[in-house]
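thought: fold this chain, then report.
action: predict
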Amino acid sequence: MSVRRASLQVLGLMLAGACAAAAGDEPRDGLTAVRQSCSGCHPETAPGHFERISAIRETPEGWVMTMSRMRQVHGLSISSKTKDLVLRYLTDAGGLAPSEAAAGRFALERRPNMQDVNLGEDLRVMCGRCHSMARTTLQRRDADEWLKLVHMHVGQWPTLEYQESGRNRYWWQSATTEVPQKLAALYPHDTPTWRAWKARKHASLVGRWIVYGHTPGRGDYFGTAVIERRAPEEYTTTYTLRYTDGKKLDGSSVAVVYTGYEWRGTATLGGQAVREVYAASEDGAQLAGRWFESEHSEHGGDWTAVRADGAPAVLAAYPRALRRGASEEVVVIGRGLTGAASFGPGTHVEVLSSEPGMMRLRVAVDPAAPLGYRDVAVGGGRGKALTAVYDRVVRVEVAPHYGIARLGGGKLSAVDAQFEAQGYIDIPGEGGKPTAVSLGALPARWHVEPFNEQAAHAQDVRFAGQLDPTGRFLPAGAGPNPAREFSGNNVGDLAVVASVQDGSGQELSGKAHLVVTVQRWNTPPIY
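observation:
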């Protein structure tokens, strides 16, 4: 066949697919949507098998990024309804099993300041210069498709080979020989895990759920969720939540579940528009993940929900630390919370109130009570190491240990950095070695200092931004700033310092490193 004739056939397929999508009615199912919108460039070589498309597996966010590239680079134009159908089909036919997505979930949940997946220096140089290695772990291809991905990268970003960490090695030779084989061995397209998950009947998430979680800088919350079915793989949810200080976090959600477990919701919590990225457990008994503000993904909270029906269980206790010789009001979250409550030896418990899913207790701790983690039991339910008994805080660490904030200005909002002060005690462990016991987040006084002499000379503390009383750093606006040397930008290299009362009248401090850097212009669904 001549090149000209082959080119005309390809063009004909593209035009046929475009005309079918334009002239026909909106498709009613995902397979028809893919045939109408994608098969012009990706022929259907067997029923439900499309060239290139069927050789790749990705998360919902990964497929969204692929479709965005088709729109930006290849002129794909489809309606929102068709796009939703295509996305559902792609994630069901070519998604990731729960265990396959586990390592990179922090990137899907947009958790800020997380340590990236470590796949070794070679792959970090190849892939991690431009995006997280988590993005690499969240897709599956065979060696030929990984090689095609390399070619696509070089075609779109031809200076890759000459950038830092690329020009000091035989980049092209490695990228086209070793790397595809290595990635195919780590993340192959066809796996028994995926075949088993794809064949499995996925659980319905309808029902009443007990919810508990933590919002960094704000505190712990709890309550209930009622999930109802809206359509196949679509749900609506009503939340009745509150923080431990009583402030309400009520709201509602509309969500789609992809690949049988990937919950993606649009919600309102406490009057704030948020997105939900949760994963259902394989048995459908738990939903866990993170919610975050639509416009500020760095603002959000951890989320766990378990079904309200089932065997008695104690799930959480707030606060997470009880001091010797003191009496504390404690909220216990769980299922089937009936009967006597116990926090172990040296404690005395009084029930203040009780409602489904929650008990409010008064817990008094003897001055000589044993130190360390405590199980919490209520009736027939027990939770392991849900709280700790301490006499005084011996160490304070600031979490995260290393954070990044970004300046704001113009159309781009600043990216904040939230810190918390984590308290610890040490108790004797195996072989006499001390074992660290976490006391959770503690109240603290906050301030920033120059991280080094250069930061002190540049007056970074003055120009980079400010830290609020909750431990949230609020960056300054982008420069240039005439008040700085050379009219520099308002970047900075800072130490974030938390000061905590240790329980005996003394004050302890912990530090973290904060880099305040320039604006982020590109925020993809998977960073």
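thought: worth noting. Residues 1-23 have pLDDT under 50 and may be disordered.
final: tokens above.
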